[in-house]
Every structure is written in structure tokens, then in C-alpha cells.
Amino acid sequence: VLKPLYAEFHDKGFEIYQVSLDIDKGLWAQVVKEQKHPWISVCDSRGTASPVASSYNLQSLPSVYVISDGTLVDIQAADEKYLRKLLNGLLK
Known about the structure:
With 92 residues, this protein is of the alpha+beta class.
């Protein structure tokens, strides 16, 4: 879902900052390399004990947050159609 959106909107200012909570950093690195994601991908190997996970009140993974001009955008769904519509509105 994210690769086509990234390809379409990156030049308009869209960035993805992907945070993995995988406790096996080696496996995470292997997956990132294999999937060749063009965006920023980091790993917090503390898993669900990560203070970031509790700060954002993560209830399930994956979770999607959209930040526009420093403000967290209230999103209702995270499917490709919804995200495309949202990005079209934000990135003119």
C-alpha cells in the first residue's frame, strides 16, 4: 500500500518514517534490505516495552500516524484509497 503512495507523493513532500518494534534487530535489517523500501526505517528493539510505543498509546501494529505541518492529523482509516485522498488534500 505504501510504495505506490510514496512514489506518487514523495516529490510533493510526503515522507514515511517507519519504526519497527522488532526485538530481533538482525531480522529487521534483513527484511528492510530485502523489501528495498525507499523511506526511512528504524528499529526500536525494546519491542512493546519501548517508551515511544506507550507515548503513542499503540494498541495494535501496524499503526499509521499522519503529521502535517507539525500537527497530528486525525485519520479514520489507513487503507490506500483513504490515504491517497488525504494526501491529495494535504499536498497541493
